[in-house]
Amino acid sequence: MDSNHRYPAPKAGAIAARRRPVNMREFKVKSMEASIEKEIIETLFSYYPEEIEFISEKDPFRFLVTVILSASNTDESAEKCARNLFSVLPDPNAIASADSNQIEKLIWSGGLAKSKARSIKALASYVVGNGKIPEEIDELTKIPGIGEKTANCYLGFLSRPAVIVDTHFARVVSRLGLVDAGEKERDKVYKLVKKKFPERIWYRLSMVLNKHGRVYCKSRDPNCTSCPVSKLCPKRRSSAQ
Ligand code: SF4
Fold first, then answer.
1. In this predicted model, what pLDDT tens digit does every residue of 23-43 receive, in sequence order?
2. Ligand 1 residue neighbourhood (C-beta within 6 Å)
3. Is 72 left (phi over 0), alpha (psi -120 to 50) or beta?
4. From the alpha carbon of 237, which atom of ligand 1 is closest?
5. Which residues contact 13 (CB under 8 A, 6 or more apart)?
6. How far apart are CA 101 and CA 201, in angstroms?
7. What pLDDT does 182 receive?
8. Weakest mean pLDDT among 31-40, 138-147, 186-195, 199-208
9. CATH C-level class of 10-51+163-236
10. How far is the CA of 228 from the centre of ligand 1 (A)?
């Protein structure tokens, strides 16, 4: 494989679809409870910018590697590790043929270097062997080290329907009462969100609630006083209006 080969970036139409505002009429209101949920979602969708991204990488392979590096790590640190890695091993060929110890040293600062190096090498070997990154969740999760969350991050990057359940999303969706699941029950949250909400809003919902968890609804000290959905939230702190 040509070592300079770049995997196809998302098509322009796909990026446009990701930026298109979500039509909330698709979210059908059947009860008072659903009406409150709709108001929460509409409020947050209009509060946060249409384009939310936590990882700025635009190359699909590098994006996926950066997502792997973000496990138990901040996005900033994951991007720094990715820059270190790609400055020495710039593409799937170079990574697939590199020694695991070399990969580990390059990504060491982000933690879990041994398992992340294994996953990144497995992904690179898959891409070298197959000539592409799969675009279906069942195929993506067959690659060692790529779990449901990482696969969904990649689907979202491709502007496909994707529910991304990380710690922020699970906490916020649970506190807001959008699904009947605890914030630690990530598998249950994933299944319930997929079942309850239309595919069209999955990715936007994932990004907006994730952002909300970082800005207001923090784990230990949520800022309920300034939160834009404080009046609608069943878990708001009593001191909030
Ligand atoms: S009111 Fe508080 S608990 Fe509810 S979503 Fe806002 S910050 Fe989170």
1. 665 555 556 667 899 999 999
2. 175-176, 216-217, 222-224, 227, 229-230, 233, 235-236, 240
3. left
4. 2
5. none
6. 41
7. 92
8. 31-40
9. mainly alpha
10. 8
Q: DSSP code of 136?
A: S
As a whole number of Å, the end-to-end CA separation of the chain is: 60
Measure the CA dihedral 112/213/182/236, to 10°. Answer: 150
- Residue 184 Cα to ligand 1 midpoint, Å, equals 17
Distance of CA 109 to the CA centre of its chain: 21
Look at residue 237 in the predicted model and tell me its pLDDT.
77
Calculate what percentage of the chain has a pLDDT beyond 90.
Answer: 82
Confidence (pTM): 0.85
- CATH code for the domain defined by 60-157: 1.10.340.30
Condensed to tens digits (0 to 9), the pLDDT of residues 154-167 reads 999 999 999 999 99
Structural domain spans, the chain? 10-51+163-236, 60-157
Q: 123: which residues sit within 8 A by CB, 6+ positions away?
A: 61, 64, 65, 68, 92, 133, 143, 145, 146
Matching residue, tokens 């991304």: 164
Instruction: Report the alpha-carbon distance of residue 76 to residue 236 in Å, rounded.
Output: 30
Q: Output the CA 178–ligand 1 centroid distance in Å.
A: 12
Question: How far apart (Å, rounded) are the C-alpha atoms in residues 28 and 179?
Answer: 16
